[in-house]
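Dear support,

We are seeing what looks like truncated structure output for some complexes. This example has two components. We would appreciate it if you could run it in full and send us the complete token output so we can diff it against ours.
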Amino acid sequence: MSKKQVYIYKSFERFWHWMQAILIFFLAFTGFEIHDTYTFFGYRDAVRYHNVAAYMLIALIVFAIFWHLTTGEYKQYIPTFKNIRAQLDYYIFGIFRNAPHPTKKTVLSKLNPLQKFTYFGLKILVIPVSVTSGLLYMFYRYPSKQGVEAINIESLEFIAIFHTIAAILLVIFIVTHLYLITTGESVTSNLRAMLTGFEELEDANNSTENIAEKNLSTKNLE
Amino acid sequence: MKKVILIVAFLGLLAIIAVGTLSQKESEPTTLMKLKEKYSKKEKPSVDHSKFAALQQKFNSPQEVTKACESCHNMTAHQVMNSNHWNWEREEYVEGRGIIYLGKGNAINNFCIGTQGNEGSCAKCHIGLGMDEKRTVFTDSTNIDCLVCHDNSETYAKANEKGGAPDMSLDFNKIAQSVGKPRRSNCGVCHFYGGGGNNVKHGDLEMTQFEPTKEIDIHMATDGMNLTCVECHTTEQHNLSGKVYSLSSMSRNRNTCEDCHTATPHKDDILNEHTIKVACQTCHIPTYAKGNATKMYWDWSTAGKLKNGEPYVEEDSMGNHAYMSIKGSFVWKKNVKPDYIWFNGTASHYLEGDKIQDTSKSLVLNKLHGSYADDESKITPVKIHVAKQPYDPINRILIQPKLYADKKGEGAFWKDFNWEKAAEVGMKDAGLPFSGKVSFIKTEMYWPVNHMVASKENTVQCKECHTRENSRLAGLKDFYMPGRDYSKIVDIGGMWILILTILGIFTHAVIRFLSYRKLKNEVSK
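Here is the complete output from our reference environment:
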């Protein structure tokens, strides 16, 4: 099988990814300061920066949703049980024996089955919980100011604890993510791909299994 | 190219969000600037009292001065006589009690306990002349003491233990011709010394406020706005706005910061949102008793010790009374951080004769109501004054002892030092039963802290409350506060999952590294 430099991550996708990475890191950093886990910016600035970054992330998410829907890229994230066992086996055993990756990475199927599950969970559960609880946190109990009577909730506790849980899950995700990106063809190949957009992959044209899905190709949409 | 434009546009949008949110909206001129302008114009009096013929006659008594005042101010007496300064009581509706008349006449306080039977001494702070134990002066308008509030010569003074009458050697003509709007000294002479000495009661009202600096009080500072008491405590028909909850129950006629500064005075929205649940005073009065110490604890149970048959006084390191035979032992504190409570502007009081429900606990003499769940409540700073005072363990009521008399043998504690006798006489004067037994009970009084506002640079900072350790609001546990509160399960659970994740990654990486080396060796072989 021949290998070829493939343009796998489009520029918006890379921009979205890194912007999101910066914002989530910054939100976690300021957020845990507000949680009084440590002191860095000072409480007042931490709150102000956290709120600004939150609005930025929301704007970014709106753009990303639009991009995913219009390009059909959202389909990458639909979870599947196919090969999930093989992928787990790979991380637990195969990787130590230098076994090949059980799933092929292609433009049309960038994510392995475990990634699909994890990213789907993030998109459908963790990020929505984080954003919703975050917005409630900001607008909580200030109906007289914001004019939204319906969110006059009795206690902040519930909101705050959900927000914290989501934050902890995101931190754990980031830590794991940072490690797992080193398990590509080489330690840095995944990182390089996300920076440049190009990754050396098996030539998709030689592989027959994906050709049937040609109608998904983003090229057709452009 | 298209992509570049899109990215630039997106970055532009983010920048707009950031600038829009972080920049502080300026709305010129600010409320504060308008207030400064308004109060820096000091009002000039429209009349010169020294020119009035009615005040040229020779005055031999304060009553003659009052008559002269009333000869022009002929509608004023009934205003004064309807004021709580004169009546020493207010009409209040209290849940469970109905309409009551609450005031110095029937409330018990944590200091000299009560006025009944002690008028000769206590009435030094009544705006009348010569109150006696039957309070007969209440009906005679010539006994209104105009001068105690309106003297601008700074020479008028009430005499000790004369029922509120002044020293008769004063130059009444000079004083009468000086009259004008009350100054800080007119109000302070009573309100700074309540409880028998400077700053005994309030903690935030004391003699440094006659001529305070900005460090003491940003409003009254002589090097600042130099406000007098009555510029905030405005008067309508001789009734002043504002009152203190040692002697009032209803949320009305309150003098609030918002009256001048509006409910949302900050440039920062997040600070403005705080005002829904946090009183201005909470952040803007970081400490009280800044100039001189205030009394925090008064233990009546140790009173009555004599040296060689004579009462004596001991002082603490700051020069305040630590022990007085007539009053017991005291604890004083300076630069005190307030306690904080939820307060909605209503209070209920222990009144003379009320049965004490639980004598094993501290009895709160003026319970201030409020809770997080109550929309009207705000976090409010208070001085909590604790005392040990006499009560009748059989009838389970607080004792109103006879404290003051001008001579021995009348049963007054300050002359005879006998609790049983003082209690018997005092309770008889008050018309209350007495079993003959005197015991002591811990009592508390809550004093909202409203004065000694700090400059904005010296306000309480976020972190003083929003912190896990030593939060100023550590005592208010009925709500979740960011920074202070957290779920132990979530935090500890989250930390362990994170630790296990990192350990897992580390183990995985080590095995990966070792197996990679092994494989490489095998290949090279």
